[in-house]
């Protein structure tokens, strides 16, 4: 009868083989469960690279935020100084001996909010001892040291009429 010598398919001869195959499959499944050491190491390396990239982007974002805050503070100090200058009479602004004399550092804003902060006032077109031009150009230049110790510069310009 050939392959059905022991009976029909699923008969007594086939049942024993089915049990043996099932036992082999179960035993192989136990040995294949989980990850190998190499797979774990590769996975940990990939996670470490991703974590480092994330950390570096967070550090860059933090530095950018700090630089932005410093620049914002510098702009606010420049605007406050310019507002003080614009309420003064034009003839008294560039005169020597005044707080806003030509080409001098304004003492009230030295190291006010930022390290190394200085605001220098300049009046382009004004000649010392001469008449005050109308309109009077006013240029404020602020320098300071940022969080990394680099020197930064910001300029604000305006004009005042008599």
How would you characterize this protein structure?
The chain has 162 residues and is an alpha+beta fold. The chain has one domain (9-160). It has helices spanning 12-32, 37-86; strands spanning 104-105, 118-122, 136-145, 151-160. A four-stranded antiparallel sheet has the order 1-2-3-4, covered by helices on one side.
- Average pLDDT level: 86
How is the biggest beta sheet arranged?
4 strands, antiparallel
CA radius of gyration is 40 Å
- Measured between the Cα atoms of the first and last residue, the distance is 123 Å
Give the neighbour order of strands across the main sheet.
1-2-3-4
Query: Could you list the spans in which at least 5 consecutive residues all have pLDDT below 50?
Result: none
- Tally of discrete structural domains: 1
Structural class: alpha+beta
Globular, elongated, flat, extended or rod-shaped: what is the shape? rod-shaped
Counted beta strands: 4
* Estimated helix fraction: 40-55%
How much of the polypeptide forms β-strand, as a percent range? 15-25%
Order of helices and strands: HHEEEE
Tally of contiguous helical segments: 2
